[in-house]
Design a protein that fits this description.
The protein is built from 26 helices and 34 strands. By secondary structure, the chain is of the alpha/beta class. The chain has five domains: 122-190, Arc Repressor Mutant, subunit A; 205-267, no CATH class; 294-477, Rossmann fold (3-Layer(aba) Sandwich), CATH 3.40.50; 482-528 and 587-721, 3-Layer(aba) Sandwich (Rossmann fold), CATH 3.40.50; 732-825, Alpha-Beta Plaits (2-Layer Sandwich). The strands form eight sheets. Strands 14-15-13-16-17-12-18 form a seven-stranded parallel β-sheet, with helices on both faces. The protein has a six-stranded parallel β-sheet with strand order 19-29-28-20-27-26, sandwiched between helices. A five-stranded antiparallel β-sheet has the order 2-1-4-3-5. The longest helix is centred in the last third of the chain and has 19 residues, at 744-762. It catalyses: ATP + H2O = ADP + phosphate + H(+); Couples ATP hydrolysis with the unwinding of duplex DNA by translocating in the 3'-5' direction. Zn(2+) 1 binds at residues 534, 537, 574, 577. It is an enzyme of class 5 (isomerase).
Length: 828
């Protein structure tokens, strides 16, 4: 970028910048650079631009050129926000690849990638014109109100004035006031990120002299004993730490804020404002020494060796085989080589659990990044990765967007997890696949870890595209858990089932509690009851916005929609026939928790699902309570299946396995096996053999047998045969197109037209349009078109270009009005 800065000094050159706006627009816009900003523009910096009639946006400079746009006159950029780029060149290339691969726009990727606080909010500020003489006689009522308000408060925003007048559109009135030279209108972009400032105190060097200090004490003890206490407390604290904050001193001394302020005024203390981190990290520096087992050492050597030829290696290790220690060794090696490491986890729940372990090895050089962080914290992590302060980053899928400088290793734990896939909004990316591309850009390596790898990954490893290392035994020789399958139908017939718990499961739970051990119960549905049903007319309450039945939640006493968040009171009388015979059908985690507390009144029961972990630290609290044995039974959804490692959990109960196995999806068997194997893997870790009880109606289901035998390979070969026969991944690529419209008839015509246009190019590779399982969400009806393409002999880039052209052509027709089209590449 230096040549642009130099050119600015030599001659008066006119530069143009192509920018990425945080909007879903098909092309990037070009703006003109005012001459005085020539030296300030640089690729990756943020600039403030006007787009549309009056809106201001923060955009990222993507290219700098001397060529003006051909079809329109370029507006000027208004401001350059950064002294140095906040987005690296590698990141911009990564964004471009993601937009192309996942068929979305650069702006949508920017929106997903940048923390909200780096995308600035536009606020129009209104002030009184100083030259305006206070003659208000010619003003109408509304104009008078605005001028009066500006007399009291020198600066108001447009939204403030809208509230004041009680109307939305205030721009025409403001325009008139502006034309009369009564007000000034200025567009101002407000920085959302505010550093966290703390006041730190140091003792005035004058009092380093013992005599002066004694004299000071003598004075204070007589006149201001509280201040004397504060100075004493400062002396005590400063022995053990370099800096003493004002808050710490108040707490230690018991003196109030006013006493400390008096000492600052008397210049006994010198106060200094400092920017402090919001992220609570203590440099524990506990380098907990551990020895690798023979199996772990063998796997580590194999991975190292394969990294010489291959960029991606799969570590296929049974649950509790000690994969984390192997990861740590590889991370240490990458750090020793001066590289950064990204450790991806599928769940925020896991992040909090694993971070405690990794802190022991990497202290403050480890950063954490996920969606539960607030805006300010995310910006802070972003800056620390950019500055190279964080050498290791542990995060959920969005961590792939951080500004790494020299990424040497990416570890993707539980790589099969569906949580790595972003479903809404665009970009609908898979963090695993994106991370492999990102590592390639940095010349780094990728290690995929799983006990039950995704079939695509295992296929790539078997066909030697990826390396493969295996760990077949549990760490420390612990045996795999004993798995028992119980027929719900059989126990219902014998009347030995209590509520939703078979006699076998109840006996095992009671035995575990008697032995002071812990239990995890898994039910893949949250809420109390998924269905409220009228026994007379079979009426079921449905969501007003979506085509789904409402789920009853006992804690709120309301019916909830899990798709759009709509809630309504639970009826006591059927709205259709007036009957009072309403009953709840099915059960979720809330009902399991409720009924268990009646059956086991002395047990301490907790629940872990989306409802109980919404607040920031609730998840960590549940995990800590489980670790500290304050919980006897944990009831939960998928969250409990993933990577939790607790020594005293010996019994796992799967309340109903059928809901997963009978799901209409070509991946249902693979997903069910993964989930059942993952849940089972939580039992009997650290030297104890555990027990897993699977409750089901279909005790002879093939997948359940494969789980009992822990036979991943048998599952893989059976399923792959089917996938080959029915043209599914990994042999074929799949692209889904969802078309949405508020009118079902118009949608039918739009989807039929689009499918017909696609068939002209791709023939029988186009399937549909079909109605998905949930056919309406948030008042939009949905139709899906699936396209399948062979992996070999077909250019996926040409395919995507053609699909884009067909969509663009469709959007130019009148028929497309009101439609939304969402492409989803690799929609697994």
């Amino acid at each position: 970028m230096l040549e642009f800065a130099e050119a600015a000094h030599h001659g008066r050159k006119t530069f143009f910048v192509e920018v990425i706006l945080p909007l879903a627009i098909a092309k990037n816009y070009t703006y003109r650079v005012p001459f005085e900003m020539n030296g300030a523009v640089e690729v990756g910096k943020r600039v403030v631009v006007q787009f549309g009639k009056s809106k201001l946006y923060t955009a990222i400079i993507d290219k700098i050129t001397e060529t003006p746009p051909e079809k329109y006159e370029a507006k000027y950029i208004l401001e350059v926000l950064d002294d140095r780029p906040v987005v690296t060149q590698t990141q911009l290339q990564f964004w471009k690849w993601m937009a192309e691969y996942y068929m979305c726009n650069d702006g949508e990727v920017m929106n997903a990638a940048l923390p909200t606080a780096l995308k600035l909010a536009s606020e129009t500020k209104i002030t009184l014109n100083r030259e305006f003489l206070a003659d208000k006689s010619g003003l109408n009522d509304r104009e008078f109100l605005i001028v009066e308000a500006l007399d009291l408060q020198p600066e108001l925003t447009v939204s403030d004035i809208a509230k004041l007048l009680g109307q939305k559109t205030v721009m025409p009135i403001l325009k008139l006031l502006f034309e009369k030279s009564i007000i000034n209108i200025s567009e101002e972009v407000s920085e959302r990120y505010k550093p966290r400032m703390r006041t730190f105190l140091t003792l005035n060097p004058v009092y380093q002299n013992q005599d002066q200090l004694k004299e000071l004490f003598g004075l204070l003890e007589k006149r201001a004993p509280k201040q004397a206490d504060a100075v004493l407390a400062y002396m005590k604290l400063s022995r053990h730490q370099k800096a003493v904050s004002k808050n710490e001193l108040i707490e230690e001394s018991g003196a109030g804020s006013s006493s400390i302020n008096s000492l600052i005024e008397k210049e006994v203390f010198i106060a200094k404002e400092k920017n402090v981190s919001r992220l609570h990290i203590e440099d524990e520096g506990l380098f907990d020494i551990f020895e690798l087992s023979a199996q772990q050492q063998e796997a580590l050597n194999s991975i190292r060796q394969q990294f010489e030829q291959k960029d991606v290696v799969l570590l296929h290790g049974v649950t509790s085989s000690g994969k984390t220690q192997v990861y740590i060794r590889l991370m240490e090696e990458a750090l020793a080589a001066g590289k950064q490491v990204l450790y991806l986890l599928p769940e925020i729940a896991l992040t909090t659990h694993v971070i405690e372990r990794l802190r022991q090895y990497f202290g403050t050089s480890i950063g954490v990044y996920h969606s539960r962080f607030n805006d300010n914290e995310r910006v802070e992590v972003w800056q620390k990765v950019l500055n190279g302060e964080y050498r290791v980053v542990l995060g959920a899928r969005s961590a792939v967007f951080l500004p790494f400088q020299e990424l040497g290793l990416i570890i993707i734990d539980e790589e099969h997890e569906v949580s790595y896939k972003q479903f809404d909004p665009a970009p609908r990316y898979n963090a695993r696949d994106a991370a492999i591309f990102l590592a390639n850009k940095h010349n780094g390596k990728v290690l995929l870890g799983s006990a039950t790898p995704a079939f695509e990954t295992y296929y790539n490893a078997r066909s030697h595209k990826y390396g493969l290392a295996e760990m077949t035994e549990r760490f420390g020789g612990t045996e795999l858990p004993l798995i028992e399958v119980i027929s719900i139908a059989e126990e219902t017939k014998k009347k030995t089932i209590q509520s939703h718990f078979t006699s076998v499961l109840m006996l095992d739970v009671q035995q575990a509690l008697a032995n002071k051990e812990q239990v995890i119960l898994f039910q893949n549905r949250r809420g109390y009851a998924p269905l409220l049903l009228c026994k007379v007319c079979a009426y079921t309450p449905k969501c007003i916005n979506c085509d789904v039945s409402l789920t009853f939640h006992k804690h709120s006493g309301k019916l909830h929609c899990h798709y759009c968040g709509y809630k309504e009171d639970s009826p006591t009388i059927c709205p259709a026939c007036g009957s009072t015979h309403l009953e709840y059908k099915g059960f979720g985690t809330e009902k399991i928790e409720d009924e268990l507390s009646l059956l086991l009144p002395s047990a301490r029961i907790a629940r872990m699902d989306l409802d109980t972990t919404r607040s920031r630290n609730s998840l960590q609290t549940i995990l800590n309570d489980l670790e500290e044995k304050k919980i006897d039974v944990l009831v939960g959804t998928q969250m409990v299946a993933k990577g939790l490692d607790f020594a005293d959990v010996t019994v796992i109960g799967i309340i109903n396995a059928d809901s997963m196995l009978k799901f209409p999806d070509y991946r249902a068997n693979e997903r069910s096996f993964q989930l059942l194997a993952q849940v089972s893997g939580r039992a009997g870790r650290r030297g104890k053999q555990g027990k897993v009880v699977i409750q089901t109606y279909d005790v002879n289901h093939r997948v359940i047998k494969q789980v009992i035998e822990n036979n991943y390979r048998d599952l893989y070969f059976t399923e792959m045969e089917e996938r080959k026969n029915f043209s599914y991944p990994p042999f074929f690529r799949v692209i889904n197109l969802d078309i949405k419209h508020k009118d079902p008839e118009i949608l039918y015509n739009q989807a039929a037209y689009l499918a017909a246009e696609l068939r002209k190019h791709f023939g029988e590779r186009v399937i549909g349009p079909e109605t998905p399982l949930v056919s309406r969400i948030r008042n939009y009806y949905i139709k899906s078109i699936m396209l399948k393409f062979e992996k070999d002999g077909v250019s996926v880039n040409k395919v995507k270009t053609t699909i884009r052209d067909v969509i663009t052509q469709f959007q130019t027709t009148k028929l497309s009005k009101g439609s939304i089209i969402q492409p989803d590449v690799d929609p697994y």
